[in-house]
Amino acid sequence: MKRYLSIAIVATSLLLTGCQSAYYGAMEKVGYHKRDIMVDRVTDAKESQEEAQEQFSSALAEMQALLNHDGGNLEAAYNKAKDEYESSQDAADDVSNRIDKVEDVAEALFDEWQTEIGEISKASLRRSSESKLRETQRSYEQLVRTMKRAESKMAPVLTAMKDNMLYLKHNLNAQAIGAIKGEFASLQTDISGLIKEMNKSIEESTKFIASIEGN
């Protein structure tokens, strides 16, 4: 318990300074190495994508409810859809931030690993460590590709949502709703594609975590 408290205190204070190299060094002093941070950050990125999947699905459901609106308070239905769009934007930002953090620790981890390989005097151990490094790097590169591919699918979906919300903001009536119904099928397709790519990224994250913990 005392160890985890120390880690939390160090992490909070150093993250506030924004100095990643000092952060990694201090965390290592309390027994929390870059490999551990890497696993945690990939896990966080995976969880943020799972949450984004749910959020985008929820936003789609609220937009569908708005388009199918058949009486009652139209503005209330619009506000629900708008709130879901804004929450989707927040979820997308969180995914991007989590990916950035994964990339940051990966660079630090691989640089350290490569440097320390040069300090191994026995050739057979050095070759073994080099092989594990290359294997981990390949796995990581595949992970980042799938993460980035899923991330790239979010922007067009958010743009379409924003367009619809702004259009309806100034034209909130049955005629305006009818005018954007044609856009909805395309939005459904885009969100389905986004969720599919996120599933691939989530699966790749699980594989990467298993591989790095097994090394």
Can you walk me through this structure?
With 215 residues, the protein is mainly α. The protein folds into two domains: 1-32; 33-214. It is built from six helices and no strands. The protein has helices at residues 2-17, 20-29, 34-67, 74-117, 123-170, 174-214.
In short:
InterPro entries: DUF2959, S2_sf_CoV. By secondary structure, the protein is mainly α.
Low-confidence stretches: 2-6
Mean pLDDT rating: 88
| Helix/strand class | mainly alpha
Q: Measure the end-to-end span.
A: 26 Å
* Gyration radius from CA atoms, angstroms: 22 Å
Task: Explain the layout of strands and helices.
Layout: H1 2-17, H2 20-29, H3 34-67, H4 74-117, H5 123-170, H6 174-214
Helix pairs in contact: 1-2, 3-4, 3-6, 4-5, 5-6
Write a concise keyword list for the protein shown above.
215 residues; mainly alpha; 0% strand; disordered N terminus
